Every structure is written in structure tokens, then in C-alpha cells.
Protein 1
Amino acid sequence: NKALDIKSFPEVYNNIGSIFSEKKDSLTAIKYFTQALELNNQYFEAFNNRGIEFYKIKNYHDAINDFENSFAINSNYADPYINLANIYFEEKKFDEAKVNYVKGLKINPSIYESYNNLGVCYSELKKYEEAIDCFDKSINLKLDYAGAYNNKGSALFSLFQFEEALKCFDIASSLNNADPDIPLNIGNLKL
């Protein structure tokens, strides 16, 4: 009987990388995800996981490469599209973010934060009706998501629908009275 050599399984390195990720040790996590990929260069989850770690340390170039490699291997995996969209969102590249949120949400339409972020992209692009639709989808998935109510209120405000905007801001405030943007938005409405 031969002993099982666990070092020959890329899943082992991926799991160890995930442990270091949870411990907020991105550099060590990257090392283990890389080892997983050296054993299996088609391991799309390891590409995505390593991309997340590169994102955390603001190495967007390598993060983008890993996310693109992940969905090139498995185009039915939503996470790398959403993660790539988050980079573009952070960089205020709202058209690119929008494209990737849409792709990811087609695969997994249950990610309420991504509907909210997609709505913000549409708002930034002055497409308020589309933004409101996204905020509504986010709210339908998580009824107590204050951020989506607040963002919907801002989109309604931009469309001069002040009463509806105030209702959204009031709901957001009741859900999260610690967010400083919400009273600011309410104050802007009352000016």
C-alpha cells in the first residue's frame, strides 16, 4: 500500500490558499494558489481565488489576468466576471464594469450586491431608469439592504421624483442610521 501524496492534488493547495486568505495573508495565499495552478493550469477556481488576492493588494493587472483566465476556462462561472467588474467599478470605469456585472448576473442572478453596483454604474452613466431597475432587483433579493434603497433614492432624485426618493431615503435610514450619506441625501431633498 502506497501512502496518498496529498501534495499532488491542486485542491489541497487551493484550500490552504483559502485559509491564508481568510487570515488576511494575501501574499501567502497567492503562493498556494500559484502552486495549485502549477499542478493544474485549468483550475479556474484557483485563478479566481488568486485574482481576488491580487485585487486585495491592489495589483489590478495580475488580478485582471487571473479573472480573464478563469472565465476563459469556464465561461459559466460567475465569480470572475463579478470580481473583474468590481475592479472596473473601483477604477470608475463604469462601462466596463457594467458589461461584466451583466455577464456575471446572467450566470448567477442572486448576487444582490452586484445588482446594486450595476445600478450605480447606470446612475453614473446617467441611465437612471435602468439604475432603478437594478436597485429594485437588489432590494427584492435582500429586503433590508439599505444601500440599494439609498442609491434608488438618489436615482429617483436625479429624475426629480422627490417624494419617491424621500421614501427610499427614509427606508434606508430606518435600516442603517449609521450611514452618513443617508441623512445627507435627505437633507439635500429638503433644501
Protein 2
Amino acid sequence: PNMLSFPIIMKPLKKFIFSLAFTAILGLLNTPLSFCASRVELPSYLVHKFEADRLLKTGALDQAAAEYEKSIALNPELNSSYFNLAIAYYSAGKMEKAARTLEQLLKLDPSDAEAEYNLACLQLYLQDISASRKHFTNAKNLCPSDSELLPLIEKGMGFVEDLHKTQPATQEVILTLLHQGLPSLNLSGSN
């Protein structure tokens, strides 16, 4: 019998961890030092983004989303705000909003394999098998052959292909189980 294997939904988010490190560095720049006469003023879109990063890390998901939205309104070209906003929505169980946010990110950066992968997983969660297949394929085409993301993409693609071969009633049961058993994101960056 052909056993289906579930893809890992939303890989650990290195972009979020990098963003937190960047926030910490810039936080130091905003701290007056004895040899500095004045503070470095950050653009307001970064102030909102860094506050959102802090809130996301503490689990204040709605507040984090609001701050990311402010950051995006002030600078719609800041890709990491979209990515982290999608994380906030995902973590709050707002899958449709998370998917739309990743779609916006992909309009800005169509070469983002990680966003394609995460969107493929969200589309699977939302029970749109054809959209999931499309985004897994896009992710694979964008992903370098030595990337740690590639095995996850291939696993997801295999799952979608196996799922596509099953009867519609079986697909519905499997997708319902996937929906109910969605694992939490690893926001700590530890593997």
C-alpha cells in the first residue's frame, strides 16, 4: 500500500530569527553611548517592524500583526515585514490572511523559494491541492540544489502527488486530519 507522508508545514523561520538579530543590532544603535553625542533615528517603518518582531516573539500576535501592517504601509518594499506578518497570521490561526500576505510578498519578490514553500503548505492546509502543487513546483524551481529547503519541498510535492491520486472522499479525510493536526511553528530557531 502506498502510504502518504505529510509535509512539514511552515519550515523553521530563519528570516524571522535574522530579523530579531538585526533588531538587536539596530537597538544598540539607538542606545546613546558615552562617546556618542546623539542617538541614531530609525525610519518609522523600521520602528514599527522592530516592535512587531518583539511582539511576535512574545506571542502578542494581533498586536504584532498591527505593527507589521503599519510597517508595510510606510514601506511596502520591506519583504521581511510581509514574511513575519504571515507568521503572525499563521500563528493566530488566520490561514487565509497568511496565504494572502505571502502572495503579496511573492509579487514583490517572485524568486523567494521559502515564501513559495510556505504558501504551498498553507494552500494544502486550506485544501486547495492544485494551488499547493503549483507553489511546491515554483519553490522547487527556485530552490538551489544544495538548499536545506529542497528535501522539504520534495516531500511536500510527493505528498500532494500521492494525495492527488486518492479518491475525493479520501482526500477530504486526509486534508481534514491535516487541518486539525497542524503543528506549531518553531519561532525559537532551534532545530
Protein 3
Amino acid sequence: VGKQGIAEGRMEFMSVSDAGSWDDNYHSPAPPLLVDDELWIYSRGTTLPEEQPDPAISSYGLANLRRDGFVSRNAGDQPGTIETRPLTLENRNHRLLVNAEIGEGGSLKVALRHADGNVLDGYSLAECDAVAGDVLAAPVTWGDHDFMDLDSGTPLRLTFELKNAKFYSFWTEPVPEPGTITIVQHVGDNN
């Protein structure tokens, strides 16, 4: 990315630095690495014009970003909603997880709806336990429902209600069968 600018309608993600900095004219970020719950983005930069980069006088930097932190949907004091298109889960018993920064007095709630828009019994916004705080992988629960016990192949929509929150991402994970051992290791784990 050099000083030539950015495409119309797009926001700049990693801009070059101020004059006199190690990357004030050009930098070239590498693909991000997931390390624990952060994205690490290494970048080579130079003060030379983009057309004349010289690796011999380049510098290297590291940018850190929360997991999935490239973009967020934000809501202030007035709650706002986001609804997905119909989604289909391949297996029964999925847990829903969210990544969000939720401010003081804020919350994130989720309702599950049939593809036609009707709410599934037990999975309304009113029955959802509010998620709060700065969370990277918080499970969403509805009272005594800590996972989505749905028939495989059932299309559904998720309606997210946000208040004083930045919502980054959501995903589902199958709930392991009783007696199953799951081992997960990420880059950066010391085990």
C-alpha cells in the first residue's frame, strides 16, 4: 500500500505512517496469522517510493488486531438489530458463539427464527441471556438452553439485538458428544 490512495467507497485498513517514519511512503503487509485471540500482521515498510523499494533499506513492523476485528456493526444507546439470511446447520446440537465489545449498560441478544420469520419456542430475544463485556468467544444461551437443539438441515435466521456494542462476528460449533475429548491448539500456545 503506497501513497497513491484507496479505491472510492473503501476505508483504509493499514495506512502508511507520518513523514519521517519507517514506513512513510510504502508498506507491504503479509497475510494475517491467528495467534491466540489476536491477528498478527507483519509488514515491510520503506521511506522510498513504491516504484523503487529496496529490501536492503526496509524496516519490518507488527500490527495486532483482535480476532475478526477488521469490521464491526455498531449500536449506541438505542438498540439496533441485524438479521441473517436463512442458514442451515449440518448437525444437531450447535453452540452459538459471538465476538463483541459491549460497553457499559450495553448488551447483545439473539433470537432464532424459522426461515419464514417466526421465532422458535424458547429462543426469543426476551428469553436470551444478555451477553456483556469485551468477549472474543462468548456462548449465547437462552435460559436453560445452552445450545441450539435443532433438527439437522433446519433453515433458520438469527436476529441479533445490539445496544452500546460493537459486533464483530458469530459462528457455531457442534457440541461434543458426552465422553468425547477435543484437543485444540492455536499458534502461540505454549503447550
